[in-house]
């Protein structure tokens, strides 16, 4: 379970790079002003990166034998929140 939580957090941080880098690339083409799409991409990417870093930290600090029901519920809630955020915010980018 500890390994799974750490892998999910690592995936979230890599996914956030896939959100942030296109926004920065678009801004590089037109550096005069930030558009709303670029700002939304940066904010969404930063939120996902922070959530991933927190999840990795939680996975590293997790005891060897956690209470399985509690950590399973935590993981399902985190995946649901990330899924809803992605479904709502990605079409806006």
Characterization of this structure:
- With 93 residues, the protein is mostly helical.
- The protein is 82% helix and 0% strand.
- It has one domain (2-92).
- The chain has three helices and no strands.
- The N and C termini lie far apart (33 Å).
Summarize model confidence as the mean pLDDT. 80
Shape: elongated
Number of strands: 0
- How far the N terminus sits from the C terminus, by CA atoms, comes to 33 Å
Radius of gyration equals: 16 Å
Query: How many domain modules?
Result: 1
How would a crystallographer describe the biggest sheet?
Answer: none
Contiguous uncertain segments of 5+ residues: none
Fraction in helix: over 70%
Instruction: Briefly note the structural class of the backbone.
Output: mainly alpha
SSE order, one letter for each helix or strand? HHH
Q: How many helical elements?
A: 3
Beta-strand percentage?
under 5%
Summarize the model shown.
This protein has 93 residues and is an all-alpha fold. The protein is built from three helices and no strands.
Question: Which features would summarize this protein structure in a list?
Answer:
elongated, 93 residues, mainly alpha
Question: How does the SSE layout of this entry go?
Answer:
Elements: H1 2-29, H2 36-61, H3 68-89
